[in-house]
Amino acid sequence: MVVYAGSDGRRWNRPTRLADLIDIDPATRAALGDCLPNLRFLLDDLTTVDQSALRARNLTADTLLMMVLLATAPGNRHLAEELWPLSDDLRALWTAPTGKAELQCLIRYIFIVSETRESDLVPLIEQLGPEAREIIMTTADRLRAEGEAQGEARGRAELLIVQLSARFGELPAATVSRLRAADSGLLDVWAVRLLSAGSLAEVFGE
To answer: Residue 11's domain spans which residues?
Structure first.
């Protein structure tokens, strides 16, 4: 089964049969006929169902919450309002043996993909208790710190790109991509090597 939730809200518009996914011309397709593999997968297109329809399914609390978030969270500024009807399910998830870890995953996903403010989510989550409120605050702080670190690394990567280009000329696209994907530690190593390197290869230790 494929569970689909397009981030832009568009419905699934691709084949669900393996035979239709094979890129061959019509004449070859006709010649092969029944010899083509014709497996089919089940599709659960979450863009075609609303929250009430999902709640009507016989789902566990964690599965229901996951599906609702997949369907509604991306880019949503009012997610907290839409989750209030699921307060009982949030409580069921929270009281489960793995509830703390699962709630943390849900909150992290919400912060990453939605545009809902932390202040709007706090009243919804703190009804579960002070420990749940601490999870939302800690997760928000951690994501802010990660964002700041990523922003700092991006800035250092761009500076190193300028320095390397000034020293060795225009950089290959693959090198630029490599620099932008590197973490701060690796950027530090390359920056130090640049001081004495005679070639681009020496900077990267190649």
So the answer is: 1-48
